[in-house]
Amino acid sequence: YRRGTTKRRFRGRAPEGARTPRRSHACPTVIAMKGAVRSLVIVLGDQLDLHSSAFDDFDPERDLVWMAEVREESQHVWSSRIRIALFLSAMRHHARALQGLGRPVDYVRLDDAGNTGSLAGELRRALARWQPRRVVLTAPGDWRVLKALRGAAAAAGHAIELRDDRHFFCTVREFAAFSQGRRTLRMEVFYRHMRRHHGVLMNGDEPVGDRWNFDAENQRPFPPGGPAFVPDRARVPPDDITREVLALVEQAFPEHPGSLRDFDWPVTREQALHALERFIAERLPEFGLWQDAMWPGEPWLWHAQLAAAMNLKLIGPREVVARAEQAWRAGAAPLASVEGFIRQVLGWREYVRGIYWTQMPALATANALEADQPLPAFYWSGETELACLADALRQTLRLGYAHHIQRLMVTGLFSLLLGVRPAQIHEWYLAVYVDAVEWVELPNTLGMSQFADGGLMGSKPYAATGKYIQRMSPHCAACRYDPAQRSGERACPFTTLYWDFLMRHEALLAGNQRMALQVKNLARLDDAQREAVRERAAAIR
Ligand code: FAD
Ligand code: SF4
Question: What is the pLDDT of residue 5?
Fold first, then answer.
């Protein structure tokens, strides 16, 4: 018996195949159930909420939590070591918290002898070990995981009892009902519906401040000297559990990207709540102003850095949105900033989840623009002469983090303009970010960033020249390319590829009202100018 388990309740011998206690202080692995197991409650690595629906009728006398660390989850895409370490450390802390509440946990460690390396394989073993009467699971985030677990359970003669994920404001059923009969599924319409429905930033039936959107006040570039100061990041020094995980990840995934030297992400609910409070007090007031700005060597700026904690379910969007609104009502943050932030969490985050679950599995293979180029190898090394791209890629590979505009308007934009296969760029995004989970990453990548959904999410592709990056960052001043040139040796590859993109998709884009201006500008290019762009684009490819 481990510290934290309840001896009184769990006597007797562990059944054959149950793991024995490990020498590590860090990880609860032991359980020995007295009688038959009623429910095996599956807790996945991104379901770290003590109050999730899977626990609604949990009885520690008869039910058992099952958690498993498996290689497949880190290797089906070439995951950042920071992402792997975050998941494993948060899972081990969560298992300890569960035990603290007297809930018995069967915990499979990555390096346990006999670990099959996949969730399906481990579930099969757990079912054989415990032979539960039922298997309970809060709806998982990923289609792939749900399919694998259902398959493994079915093979063992079980049907998984799937319960709603209450973490979100909006259930998938509500989203499906909302989208029924609509020709398009624009975020803005959904966001206003959510604001009304949940009474967020509302004054009766009207939005506070009499406007739904404050973008005009937000989204500024930094002044020429850059930000005068940037608030310190909320750092969490590794404890014993995290240190053990870091050593394991170093040893088990030596070739994967990401440096573990400065690992400092929140891995418990308490730490995540502390990070939330720091964000509300120190960053939220200026979040809106600088949310689209980039500055070399400044990865964090005024961003919340809370996506990972939310996606692991350490904290929930309700408390995050409520704290932001309270800050505005208390006069601690301006409305423009608070609305800009709430739009991301109550709007975009809920919206992409609805899109994912109503559009899968077709979304995963969508390729409306028939993009067929391979992902450039430098996405995995950061070795490129394009200054903006080098900065975003190196930061991403080192820290497992880049903010939204770096993802959308640098790494994503380049891939869109180059015409990279959506499946390849999707795998890259899913691998490299600490907050990457498929339900949020896939719609953002395929829909918002690559227009592979043909316009389901966005009314037009996010296509721009290097001048956008010049406006929002100082990168171009230090680059060998010139964002104003579209052809020739010094032409900015973003600018060349933008014109090439318009030419390649001219027929499709001509029918899009929102692209009218861009298509009109394209019509001004004569044959020689078009040929020069094509030649340069071919050279870049
Ligand atoms: P902030 O910029 O401070 O934003 C606050 C919060 O709003 C975030 O924590 C996040 O929860 C939410 N949010 C903001 N934008 C979005 C959005 N577009 N979709 C959903 N939620 C949003 N976000 C992920 O959580 N996981 C991903 O794997 C992911 N992949 C992305 C891939 C691409 C190509 C793009 C363009 C965006 C992706 N995003 C993803 C959305 C967004 O970039 C990140 O949520 C954000 O950068 C995380 O940093 P932050 O916590 O500092 O967020
Ligand atoms: Fe990026 Fe082009 Fe500017 Fe260079 S010139 S930093 S490639 S946008």
Answer: 33
What secondary structure does DSSP assign to 319-331, as a single string? HHHHHHHHHHHTT
Rounded distance, CA 9 to CA 531, Å?
78
pLDDT score, position 221: 93
pLDDT score for 183: 75
Q: Which ligand is nearest to the CA of 474?
A: 2
Q: For a pocket test of ligand 2, which of 415, 469, 486 has the largest count of ligand atoms closer than 8 A to its C-beta?
A: 469
Beta carbons of 296 and 475 less than 8 angstroms apart: yes
With a 6 Å cutoff on the Cβ, whether 387 touches ligand 2 is yes
User: Which of 259, 299, 229, 226 shows the shortest CA–CA distance to 477?
Assistant: 226
Query: Alpha helices of 46-186 — where are they, by DSSP H?
Result: 72-75, 81-100, 119-130, 143-155, 172-179
For the Cβ of 479 lying below 6 angstroms from any atom of ligand 2, the answer is: yes
Report the DSSP pairing between strands 105-108 and 206-207.
unpaired
Is the pLDDT reported for residue 33 higher than 90? no
> How does DSSP assign 383-443, residue by residue?
--S-HHHHHHHHHHHHHS---HHHIIIIIHHHHHHHTB-HHHHHHHHHHH-TT--HHHHHI
What does the DSSP assignment read for 74-100?
HHTTT--HHHHHHHHHHHHHHHHHHHH
**What confidence tens digit (pLDDT) does each residue in 426-463 have?**
999 999 999 999 999 999 999 999 999 999 999 899 99
Nearest to residue 342, comparing CAs of 356, 331, 327?
A: 327
Spell out the residues 6+ positions from residue 23 whose beta carbon is closer than 8 angstroms to its own: none
**Would you place residue 11 in the very low, low, confident or very high pLDDT band (cuts 50, 70, 90)?**
very low
- pLDDT at residue 34 in the model: 54
Distance CA 536, CA 493 (A): 9
Q: Which amino acid is at 449?
A: S
Please write the tens of the pLDDT for every residue from 472-523: 999 999 999 999 999 999 999 999 999 999 999 999 999 899 999 999 999 9
Q: Whose CA is nearest to atom 44 of ligand 1?
A: 404
pLDDT at 177 over 50: yes
Which residue CA neighbors atom 20 of ligand 1 most closely?
349
- From 435, 445, 449, give the residue whose CB has the most ligand 1 atoms within 8 Å, as the site to mutate: 435
